[in-house]
Amino acid sequence: MSNKVLEKALNEQLNAEMYSSYLYLSMSAYFSDAGLSGFANWMRVQAQEELAHAMMFYDYIIERGGRVVLTQVEGPQTEWESPLAAVEDVLTHEKKVTSMINNLVDLAIEQKDHATNIFLQWFVSEQVEEEDSVNDVLNKLKLIGGEGNGMFIIDKDLALRVFTPPTQSSQNA
Ligand code: FEO
User: Fold this and answer.
1) 126-144: per-residue pLDDT in tens?
2) Ramachandran region of residue 58, left (φ > 0), alpha (ψ -120 to 50) or beta?
3) Which of 64, 72, 101, 125 could serve as a FRET partner for 115 with CA atoms 20 to 30 Å apart?
4) Structural domain tally of the chain?
5) Do the beta carbons of residue 145 and residue 166 sit within 8 Å?
6) Residue 127 Cα to ligand 1 middle (Å)
7) 20 lines ligand 1 (CB under 6 A)
8) Domain residues for 118?
9) CB of 17 shorter than 6 A to ligand 1
10) Is the CB of 46 inside a 6 Å radius of any atom of ligand 1?
11) Per-residue pLDDT tens for 53-81?
12) What is the distance in A from the centroid of ligand 1 to the CA of 55?
């Protein structure tokens, strides 16, 4: 990749997506331990999505003739006070990722790299969806106060989530 500033930033985002995957897998383990297999499934699918995002950055860097440089992935938090606290952390984290993607778009525009800007637009849309789907779970949890029969119903609902790999057409959408 001729633009080394962007190459470095894209590699940093690759690492951040790996960390997101690691964080959500850690949450999945927390929920499995708490006996909430539906929440565990939802987080596991979330982790798979993040790994797919990381691989999209991986492939894009190579496609542009750049060098992928993998660096240490930070160890994630392993315990949460409650299911509500964990889901709140997902939303906080996704908001942080949204601002990272927006900063990357700013950088691509500043560096006049239109191809990277187009590549990043998929992630701009994806972040809107991600924040919306976490908000949905969070609102349901708040509604039932995070306990009782409502938890059983939400858990059953979250058990239905399945991983769908991002397709070429959705990447270009
Ligand atoms: Fe890869 Fe949840 O953003």
Assistant:
1) 999 999 999 999 999 999 9
2) alpha
3) 72
4) 1
5) no
6) 7
7) yes
8) 4-172
9) yes
10) no
11) 999 999 999 999 999 999 999 999 999 99
12) 12
